[in-house]
Amino acid sequence: MKIQLASSYGFCYGVKRAIEIAQHNPNSKTYGPLIHNKDEISRLKQNYNIDLATSIDELRPQETVIIRTHGITKDELQILKKQNNTIINATCPYVTKPQQIVEQMSKEGYSVVIFGDKDHPEIKGVYSYGQEKNTFIVNTPDDIDFGLLKSKVAVVSQTTRKPQDFEKIVNALTSRIKEVRVFNTICNATFENQDAAMELAQEADIMIVIGGKHSSNTKQLHSICKSYCKDSFLIENESEIVPQWFEGKSLCGISAGASTPDWIVQNVINTINQIA
Ligand code: SF4
To answer: Dihedrals φ, ψ of 261, to 5°?
Structure first.
C-alpha cells in the first residue's frame, strides 16, 4: 500500500516558529499554551524544561517568558515589563500585523472595526491596541452599530476567519460609511491544509487525519476528508491505528491538524508501514 502525505499539513508557519523559539530558550515559561497539543507540550517540558503559565499571576518577576502565537494584550505586556520579566516574543507576525494596524489607525483618528470572536486571545490582544471608545469587535454585520462609528473607518479580521464572511462585514461598512480602509489580515494557513486534504481525499482509498479530537481545525479537516473518502479516520497518535482499516486498500492519504507536530505524523507513518 502506498502512503501519501497531503501537500500541506500540520503546523503552520507561526506555530513552527514559536516552537523553534521555545527550543532556543530552555528553562523558560510560556504565557498561554504555545500550541493545543498535549504531547508536544509534554515534549517541551521534558526536553527543554519549558513550563506553561495559564495566567499572568503564575509568572514570577524576572522569569523568562515566551509570549504565545496568538499574542497578549498591551496591558499584560506592560505588567511583564514592570516585573522585569525577560520577554521572548513568539507572537505570530500575522497576528502582530493587525495589532499594529489597529494602533496606527486609532492614532490617525479612524474608528476601528475588528471582525472576530471577542473571547479569543488573539482578538483580545488586537483590541487592546485600539482606543476603547473607537474600537469595536463584531462577529456579524448585524453587530455593527453605525451610530457609534465616525465617518472614516478601518477594518481588520481575525486571522482564521473565512474571507467570504469578512467580505460581508466590509460590504456592510462600505454601504454606509464614506471612507473605509480595509486590511485583509486573514491568514491562509488553515485553508492551505484543507485544500490539500480535499485534493488527496479524492484519490485515496483511506484517509488518516492526525490531530486532537477536540481541535476544531482537525475536526474540520476530518469532515472534509470524509465527504470525499468514506474511510477517513481521525486519530490523535499511532496508538489508535486499527490494522483492519487498511485491508484491500492501495492508497492511504495522510493529513494533520495545525497543532500536530511532525514527529507524531512520522510515528503514524512508521506504524502504518509496519502493518500494511
Ligand atoms: S496567524 Fe496563521 S501562521 Fe500565524 S499562528 Fe495563526 S494560523 Fe499560524
So the answer is: -70, 155
- Three-class SS state of 13: helix
Query: Residue with the nearest Cα to atom 4 of ligand 1?
Result: 14
Contact 186, 159 (CB under 8 A): yes
Q: Is the CB of 92 under 6 A from ligand 1?
A: yes
Nearest by Cα to 256 from 202, 205, 220? 220
Residue 14 beta carbon below 6 angstroms from any ligand 1 atom: yes
CATH code, 136: 3.40.1010.20
- Whether the CB-CB separation of 273 and 3 falls below 8 Å is answered with yes
Alpha helices by DSSP H, 53-142:
74-82, 93-107, 121-127
Q: 252 and 269, same structural domain?
A: yes
Containing domain of residue 252, as a range? 2-8+189-275
Provide the pLDDT for residue 276.
Answer: 77
Is there a single domain that holds both residue 86 and residue 152? no
Q: pTM of the full predicted structure?
A: 0.86
User: Which atom from ligand 1 is nearest to the alpha carbon of 69?
Assistant: 5
* 88 in the same domain as 109: no
Co-location of 63 and 98 in the same domain:
no
Question: Is residue 137 within 8 Å of residue 114, measured between CB atoms?
Answer: yes
pLDDT in tens, 221-231: 999 999 999 99
pLDDT under 70 in the chain at which residues? none
Same domain, 253 and 196: yes
Give me the pLDDT at residue 63, please: 94
pLDDT on residue 212:
83
Ligand 1 centre to CA of 216 (Å) is 15
| Domain count for the chain | 3
